[in-house]
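Below is a complete specimen:
___
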Amino acid sequence: MTDPDQTFRALHSRMAAVAGARLFTVTRIDRPAGLARRIFTSHPADYPASGTKPIRPDGWTAQVIDGQSSFVANSTAEFAVYFPDHALINQLGCQSALNVPVVEAVQTIATVNILDDAGRFTPETVDRVERLLKAHHADLVAAILASPL
């Protein structure tokens, strides 16, 4: 099997080419612990792979984890309500966010998180990202499941 980090790095490169991806992370959903665990990051100093965030009952969780639908925010104001770390995100030069659920066996097992310039994620860009993730679904799922909770 390919090293999960190699799979994630290749995916980050592809995402950067189609959508911009100044900050790119993958978080694995740990439902029993109520945490989203970062298993890959393009910025290890700012967002280490060991980081976690609580899964809170809010609109983002309802949409992405429970509803299995992508979250798009093209300005800081749109994501600040859900991302307590929005100031750090802005310091990295990112004012827009796209979070895409990774679903396997009807469960959301992870999210792919792409952050970049304000206004980056048009409907066409979101469609390109979702199609790219679908094309690499099997490799992505294998890498996610090979990453420890």
About this structure: Helices lie at 4-19, 59-66, 76-80, 86-91, 123-135, 137-146. The radius of gyration is 14 Å.
